[in-house]
UniProtKB/TrEMBL annotation:
Residues 30-130, 132-204 form the 7TM GPCR serpentine receptor class x (Srx) domain. Keywords: Membrane, Transmembrane, Transmembrane helix. PANTHER family: G-PROTEIN COUPLED RECEPTORS FAMILY 1 PROFILE DOMAIN-CONTAINING PROTEIN, SERPENTINE RECEPTOR, CLASS X. The gene is Cni-srx-14. SUPFAM superfamilies: Family A G protein-coupled receptor-like (SSF81321). It comes from the Eukaryota. Pfam families: 7TM_GPCR_Srx. This is 7TM GPCR serpentine receptor class x (Srx) domain-containing protein. The chain crosses the membrane at residues 22-47, 59-78, 110-134, 155-177. It comes from Caenorhabditis nigoni. CDD domains: 7tm_classA_rhodopsin-like.
Amino acid sequence: MSSNSTPIMDPEELEEMTREDVLLAAAIIFFVAFFGLIFNILGITVVMKNPILKNSFGTLCLSHSIANSGVLFVFFIWSAPATYIQAQHTNGMISKLLGQLNILCWDACVYSHLAISFNRFFSIAIPARILLIIHRKHSHFTSNDEAVKRRKVEIRFFMQSCLQGILFFYEIFNFYYVSTLNTNQWYVFFTATFAWEICHCLDG
C-alpha cells in the first residue's frame, strides 16, 4: 500500500495536532501492533503443533501469519516510535527498507489470501476428488465417520477463510476509498492506518 493513496492533510491542520493527540495515536499503533504480533505468533504455534493442519492449508496459514507478523513488526518498531517523536525526516534508507519490508509482507498476505481461497474451493467444491487422491496416496479408505468429520473441519476452515476475506475487504475499502472522504486527522487515522493495522492484527 502506498501512503500516496491517502488524502494529504493541510499542513496548518497538522500543526494543530496536540501533543495528547500524537501520544494517543502512537499508543494505539503500538498496542495494536503488540497484541497483533502476539496473536499471530500464537497462530503460528498452533499451526505448527496441530496435526490437523499438517497439510497445504496449514502451510498457507503459516505463511499468512508470518506475513501478518512482518507487517505488524514494522508498525511496532518504526511507525509507533516515529509517530511518538514526530520524526520529520522519515525518508532515509532505514525507513525505505522498512517500507519495502512492509509492502513485501503485505503482498505476501494478498497472495496467501488468494491461495487459501483456491485451497478452500477445491476442498469444498470437489471433496470427492480430493479424498480419492488422498486415498490413493495413503493406499487405504477412511470410514464414513472419518469422512464426515473431515468434511466438518473443511467447512470450518472455509468459514474462517471467508471471515478473513471480509476483514481484508474492510482494510482495502477503508484505505483506498473511505479515508479519502474526509481530511479530519482522526478520521484519516482510523480509516487508513488503524484499518490497515487492525486487519493484520485480527487476521492472525
